[in-house]
Amino acid sequence: MQLTAIVVAAGRGTRARTQKPKQYEHVAGRPVLEWTLRALAPQVAAIVVVRHPDDARLFEALDLSAIHVPVIDVNGADSRDGSVRAGLEAVPEGTTHVLIHDGARCCVTPAVVDRVIKALHSNPAAAPALPVTDALWTGDDSTEGPRVTGIQDRSGLYRAQTPQGFELTAIRAAHAARTRPAADDVEVARDHGLDVAIVEGDDNNIKITHPEDFARAHHLLKGPAHMDIRLGNGYDVHRFGPGDHVILCGVKIPHDRALQGHSDADVGMHTVTDAIYGALAEGDIGQHFPPSDPQWKGAASEIFLRHAVELARDRGYRIGNVDCTLVCEMPKIGPHSVAMRTEMARLMGLELGQVSVKATTSEELGFTGRKEGIACIATVTLIGQ
């Protein structure tokens, strides 16, 4: 399955009563549309933004530096249906499924997107929704204001949300056959005979429509509920062998023995690298750089660390902090810890205050106590962007 997100953002949003289209108004420090693209990017291979022809400069002003997938912008149409069709025609080659999402739903969570994607593995279409729980009335207007005229049964009723996911050829055919406007793409799909699975939505997956919605979106985007925080642990050991120095966290330290390994045996850097892979659920160094591959013989460990950092960035995460503890009797780590922190921060693009490198002994117990090698443990925090 290769997914492309189609973000429908060509509307004028007059009910929001903003000076410019609501999708370009700022909320929690960024334009609404920028938040939306950031939310979708980690889970798709590409994004197609369907914008209004008059909004080219507003779109170009968005900061897309944190979005590490191709972003294609195309002109929308006078109707939502027409805009979706424009987006469907612009998806990159190789796309098998699409997620069609409202540009003003900037608070969508990874969990909602994941549920739609999982449902697409066994269904031609899937969409998030929430059961209607409030009592429903019918009413009409009178000179004295609206009056209740009846009660509507809420059994089997759902509040629709996006992203709505579809098999690409099926939704293209459904839109091509459509001859009248539709409320959303689920209606288009069902009228064409597609079975649509319902997955659990989220009350916070709001669509900014009215002026007061901006305040709620600000709270959601700044609050901890929206943050995707991951923790990874690493552990590594290297034994001593012949040599006159060790390399720890990128720093060469004179010593009467050297650490043994397929690469340069930097046990500190290896452990931090494994912690990043762990936070991403991406295995360990051995899976990405097999020791059986001769090209990594004697390789500098910064190659591995840079790969892990770039992989995290490509997945939409930044490194919050790193805590690395070396376990050894010798050499003494304290005199070199600042240099180690500085080098690790440089390689990972972090501030010095985000990197901790410290050491402890094992009180002469075990293999480290017998000075047979060095062990290391590390913890890394990744924060979704």
Automatic annotation (TrEMBL):
Known InterPro entries for this protein?
A: IspD (IPR001228), IspD/F (IPR026596), IspD/TarI (IPR034683), ISPD_synthase_CS (IPR018294), MECDP_synthase (IPR003526), MECDP_synthase_CS (IPR020555), MECDP_synthase_sf (IPR036571), Nucleotide-diphossugar_trans (IPR029044)
Provide one Gene Ontology biological process annotation. isopentenyl diphosphate biosynthetic process, methylerythritol 4-phosphate pathway
Annotated 2-C-methyl-D-erythritol 2,4-cyclodiphosphate synthase domain ranges read 229-382
Q: Which residues form a coiled coil?
A: none
- Give positions of region: 2-C-methyl-D-erythritol 4-phosphate cytidylyltransferase: 1-229
Q: What is its EC number?
A: 2.7.7.60, 4.6.1.12
Entry-linked Gene3D superfamilies? 2-C-methyl-D-erythritol 2,4-cyclodiphosphate synthase, Spore Coat Polysaccharide Biosynthesis Protein SpsA, Chain A
Needs which cofactor?
A: a divalent metal cation
| Catalysed reaction, written as an equation | 2-C-methyl-D-erythritol 4-phosphate + CTP + H(+) = 4-CDP-2-C-methyl-D-erythritol + diphosphate; 4-CDP-2-C-methyl-D-erythritol 2-phosphate = 2-C-methyl-D-erythritol 2,4-cyclic diphosphate + CMP
- Keyword Protein transport assigned to the entry: answer is no
Q: What Gene Ontology molecular function terms does this protein carry?
A: 2-C-methyl-D-erythritol 2,4-cyclodiphosphate synthase activity; 2-C-methyl-D-erythritol 4-phosphate cytidylyltransferase activity; metal ion binding
Site (Transition state stabilizer): give the residues: R15, K22, H262, T361
Instruction: Report the superkingdom from the record.
Output: Bacteria
Quote the record's binding site residues for 4-CDP-2-C-methyl-D-erythritol 2-phosphate: D236, V237, H238, H262, S263, D284, I285, G286, T360, T361, S362, E363, F367, R370
Record-annotated site: Positions MEP for the nucleophilic attack:
R154, K207
The UniProt entry, under Pfam families, shows: IspD, YgbB
Q: In which pathway does it act?
A: Isoprenoid biosynthesis; isopentenyl diphosphate biosynthesis via DXP pathway; isopentenyl diphosphate from 1-deoxy-D-xylulose 5-phosphate: step 4/6; Isoprenoid biosynthesis; isopentenyl diphosphate biosynthesis via DXP pathway; isopentenyl diphosphate from 1-deoxy-D-xylulose 5-phosphate: step 2/6
**Positions bound to a divalent metal cation:** D236, H238, H270
Q: What does this protein do?
A: Bifunctional enzyme that catalyzes the formation of 4-diphosphocytidyl-2-C-methyl-D-erythritol from CTP and 2-C-methyl-D-erythritol 4-phosphate (MEP) (IspD), and catalyzes the conversion of 4-diphosphocytidyl-2-C-methyl-D-erythritol 2-phosphate (CDP-ME2P) to 2-C-methyl-D-erythritol 2,4-cyclodiphosphate (ME-CPP) with a corresponding release of cytidine 5-monophosphate (CMP) (IspF).
Q: What does the sequence similarity comment in the record state about its family?
A: In the N-terminal section; belongs to the IspD/TarI cytidylyltransferase family. IspD subfamily.
Name the UniProt record assigns to this protein: Bifunctional enzyme IspD/IspF
**Gene this protein is translated from:** ispDF
